[in-house]
Specification:
Blueprint: H1 16-22, H2 25-29, H3 32-43, E1 46-51, E2 54-59, H4 62-71, E3 76-77, H5 81-90, H6 99-109, H7 115-133, E4 140-144, H8 145-162, H9 167-189, H10 201-226, H11 237-243, H12 254-267, H13 270-285, H14 287-298, H15 313-325, E5 332-336, E6 340-342, E7 345-347, E8 352-355, H16 357-360, H17 403-420, E9 421-425, E10 446-451
Parallel strand pairs: 2-8
Antiparallel strand pairs: 1-2, 3-5, 4-10, 5-8, 6-7, 9-10
Bound molecules: protoporphyrin IX containing FE.
Protoporphyrin IX containing FE binds next to helix 12, helix 13 and helix 17.
């Protein structure tokens, strides 16, 4: 049947001139998670809603996300409002590009993520995790855990990407990221999407942070071009960017190198840091899981080594289960280039798909007792799930390039942490996620660390 003859997926109806013009925009600008949850509960696993001029399709089941992510992936691109905001800040690069530009980026990074390379990066993770967790050397200490975890993942990413010779610059990049992210979030939620040059306070903060970041990254690249040899145990990622030549022998432009660096820097540390904080949080709420993890980690001898990764399946289960319940990329988007069909429904040309790992992961048709925290779901002997049931790292040709990197890193940081400390969350208010750029905990969650 021709898709044009099919009905659109069900969804809210809009009555009156105002509602017909804005659709669900006012609800969306409030509590996004509550709003999408209501749409899912009221209308099911595939639902249509309208945000201003955009028709959005919320997809919450593996059978529906498979179509835009894999089966008909070439009909869907990333020219969506969400990705346009990201591109506005980070410039066009691997995360936001489509077509030939995207293929070039993947070609540049492919050799940087081989098994051998990942082994080199893992060695770096081992030393950094030990060094950084050693900083908390008091018998009892209170720390702001989101900042601390993000600092660890940022340092690891900085060195894997840029090498160890430019530590001062990595620090400078680190201090420009938080204001940039804050401004990005503020832009994403403003009612009137003003252009970047418009002198609002948010745009001014954003442009200042971006100016600082561009200056530092350009300086790093200049220095790296002058360094004779890479002095690390692994080849850092920037060397692949600098050595890359297009088919007609041209290097990547200065702007493109900068965009790719900023993109990997952001995509590669914020998400893993957030996943680690949620892992610690869920463990603190589930003493029986915490004890299993202590037992697994205490069975290891001597300093943590690369080989220990295979002996930490429960730690990996904890991280993945935290990503299932609180996926850092809780929803991401695609635009339909041409009309399509998903299930019995018509997808109109230009409709925006909201692919929602958060709802797929909590769908009772897919996961048994989905609200329960059970790391056992991800142990090697657990029942195998549909590939599209766990979407924390996306799926299909545009799946996360750094999934293995992030997994090794999280398991190592978790193991290093658990070996040294017991902890409890001591914030006076309940810990809940924000739906900003990532699904990080609201505010500044504090934990009390006790040396074991
Ligand atoms: C827990 C950690 C991480 C999570 C939850 C995560 C999640 C994701 C998701 C969901 C996507 C797909 C987005 C889409 O299809 O629209 C993605 C793509 C991507 N991720 Fe990750 N990521 C993580 C860590 C990393 C790391 C460590 C790196 C780099 C070292 C990285 C680099 C990328 C890149 C470059 C893409 C774009 C791939 C493409 O479009 O071809 N990510 N990530």
């Amino acid at each position: 049947m021709n898709p044009s003859e099919l009905p659109s997926p069900p969804g809210p109806t809009y009555r009156g001139f105002y509602r017909r013009s804005v659709g669900s925009l006012p609800d969306f600008l409030g509590d996004k998670l509550a709003f999408f949850t209501k749409v899912w509960k009221d209308h099911g696993d595939i639902a249509t809603l309208r945000l201003g001029k955009y028709e959005m399709i919320l997809l919450s089941h593996p059978d529906q996300v498979r179509r835009p992510l894999l089966e008909n992936a070439s009909n869907y691109d990333k020219q969506t409002p969400g990705y346009q905001q990201v591109a506005f800040v980070l410039g066009n690069a691997v995360f936001t590009n489509d077509g030939e530009d995207w293929k070039t980026s993947r070609k540049v990074f492919r050799p940087a993520f081989t098994q051998d390379q990942i082994r080199g990066f893992t060695q770096l993770m081992l030393t950094t995790a030990e060094r950084l967790t050693d900083r908390w050397d008091q018998p009892v200490q209170i720390v702001e855990i989101s900042t601390e975890m993000t600092r660890i993942t940022f340092e690891i990413m900085g060195e894997a990407l840029l090498g160890s010779d430019i530590q001062d610059h990595v620090d400078a990049i680190g201090s420009s990221f938080p204001p940039m992210l804050e401004a990005l979030n503020a832009r994403a939620t403003q009612r009137l999407p003003l252009p970047g040059w418009f002198p609002t306070r948010t745009n001014r903060t954003l442009n200042r942070a971006l100016g600082d970041l561009h200056r530092v990254v350009d300086e790093v690249v200049r220095q790296r071009q002058q360094l004779a040899a890479n002095t690390n145990d692994f080849r850092d990622m920037v060397s692949y960017l600098l050595e890359f030549r297009t088919e007609d022998g041209q290097p990547l432009s200065v702007e493109r190198v900068r965009n790719e660096i900023l993109t990997i820097m952001l995509a590669g540390h914020e998400t893993t840091g957030v996943g680690l904080v949620w892992s610690l949080y869920f463990l603190s709420q589930h003493p029986e899981a915490m004890e299993k993890l202590y037992a697994e980690v205490d069975a290891l001898e001597g300093p943590l080594r690369l080989e220990d990764l295979d002996r930490l399946p429960y730690a990996k289960g904890v991280f993945y289960e935290a990503l299932r319940l609180h996926p850092p990329a809780w929803a991401f988007s695609r635009r339909a280039l041409e009309e399509d069909q998903i299930g019995p429904y018509r997808i109109k040309k230009n409709a925006v798909m909201i692919i929602a790992p958060y709802f797929v992961h909590r769908n009772p048709k897919v996961w048994e007792d989905p609200e329960e925290f059970r790391p056992e779901r991800f142990l090697p002997n657990a029942e195998k799930k549909d590939r599209f049931a766990f979407l924390a790292f996306g799926a299909g040709p545009r799946a996360c390039i750094g999934a293995q990197f992030a997994t090794n890193e999280a398991v190592i940081v978790l193991a290093a942490f658990v070996r040294k400390f017991r902890w409890k969350f001591v914030s006076p208010t309940p810990i809940k996620p924000t739906t900003s750029f990532s699904f990080r905990p609201e505010g500044t969650p504090m934990i009390e660390l006790t040396r074991r």
